[in-house]
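Treating backbone geometry as a discrete language has practical consequences that deserve illustration. The amino acid sequence and the backbone structure tokens for this protein are reproduced below.
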Amino acid sequence: MSRRLLTRLGLGMATLICVYVVTFLLVISAPGNPFEGAERNMPPEVVRALKARYSMDSELKYFFQFLWGAIRLDFGPSFQYHDWTCSQIIADALPVSAALGFLAVGLAVLVGVPVGVLSAVKPNGWFDVTSLGFVLLGISLPTFVTGSALLIVFAVWLKVAPVGGWGRIAHLPLPALTLSLPFAAYVARLTRAGMLDVLGSEFIRTALAKGLAPRTVVWKHAFKVAFLPVLSFLGPAAAQAMTGSFVVEKVFSIPGMGQHFVNGALNLNRGLVMSTVLAYATILIVFNIVVDILYTFVDPRIKEAT
């Protein structure tokens, strides 16, 4: 178990370095710099001095300087937000996106798992066909469509929810529901496919032949095995939901990481873009490692192999 964990940590660090290199190359390839723009008309001498001040006059020097700062969780200054560093921006925005993401993933599991199990228990029935239609709809519709529709119905017509913003419990349901719909659809589909595969296994038929209650066989024996694909999906899904959906945060005016990433890209803020990407990649790697650890508790065969 410990060797498997150390191997995953080593691969995670290598992946994080590769993400940083690719992100750095893409960022420096973008034309312009944060000191030049429509609202800033600085003399060339001032621009050169600022580049030298922040080591942007040498790409190689800036590469290692930002990397060393990232190791110390110091991502440098933010040129768009005065008196704020990139680390402070991420520390302020990450809890917002994390709260929204955890709620969205929780809703996805609470809705998707029962729907998938009930659909697999009675395949091709009316509930199965209806749920497959909703799953297809949830996967196909983009979040800006579902988010706008929910705003129109619940905020404009019914006036039971605020139009946007953050800070009160009333601000949570609509964006969380919007963000959870695609995840719930995938969870339901994966659960249904896994349950259909497991319910046809010999050990399920043996358990039923021994007189076990069908509910016990479904939830205690079949579901434990069928949940493995869902568990694999929840790792990257939780990381994606935690870091926030750019569209959902924009539609509901939520001050999460998505809005800061978009603003950083539009304003050529290299530090803010790279720090946001590194934060997202780190969360994704950590959640995948957590999923690998949880596998050993769900499936004893993996524990025996390690």
